[in-house]
């Protein structure tokens, strides 16, 4: 993952045999199908037949075929050239930490005020089963410090 460029969701480094996904896109995108599509987009760039094709030629043909072939699947892929999510807006994003007061463990971190965050009193800890979860603002903490 990287966080320097804010105009690309991901990149393919063909010679290094590596793809990267922008940290804020990966963590904040609410649609997992969109995340999967971006990963497939970058993997398609890594195919030998698509090397140096950019978003034209064989890359464009295979992207269209892949999108068409998965359109009826539950988890469909839409491989396209551009997106509309402005990653610069997610640099100082609020993070909600979910902490179990019974087993003293960090359970998860959410980047949006989801229904889990709003209804935390109704949720059970996946580790100990207790209904003792608490939401804590962890915006200025490194997630690695929480052990997640």
Q: What does this 3D model show about the protein?
A:
- This protein is an alpha+beta fold and 148 residues long.
- The chain folds into 2 domains: 10-86, no CATH class; 94-146, no CATH class.
- Helices cover 25% and strands 16% of the residues.
- It has 4 helices and 5 strands; from the N terminus they run E-E-H-H-H-E-E-H-E.
- It has helices at 23-28, 32-45, 57-69, 115-118, and strands at residues 10-13, 18-21, 96-100, 105-110, 133-137.
- The strands form 2 sheets. The protein has a 3-stranded antiparallel beta sheet with strand order 4-3-5, with no helix packed on it. A two-stranded antiparallel sheet has the order 1-2.
- The chain is elongated, with a radius of gyration of 19 Å.
- The two termini are 16 Å apart.
Topology:
Layout: E1 10-13, E2 18-21, H1 23-28, H2 32-45, H3 57-69, E3 96-100, E4 105-110, H4 115-118, E5 133-137
Antiparallel strand pairs: 1-2, 3-4, 3-5
The helix-and-strand class reads alpha+beta
Cα-to-Cα separation, first versus last residue: 16 Å
Main sheet record? 3 strands, antiparallel
Please state the CA-atom Rg, rounded to the nearest Å: 19 Å
Share of helix, binned: 25-40%
Count of helical stretches: 4
Outline the low-pLDDT stretches.
Answer: none
E-strand count: 5
Strand order of the largest sheet: 4-3-5
Give the mean pLDDT: 79
| Tally of discrete structural domains | 2
- Please state the overall shape, judged from the principal axes of the Cα atoms: elongated
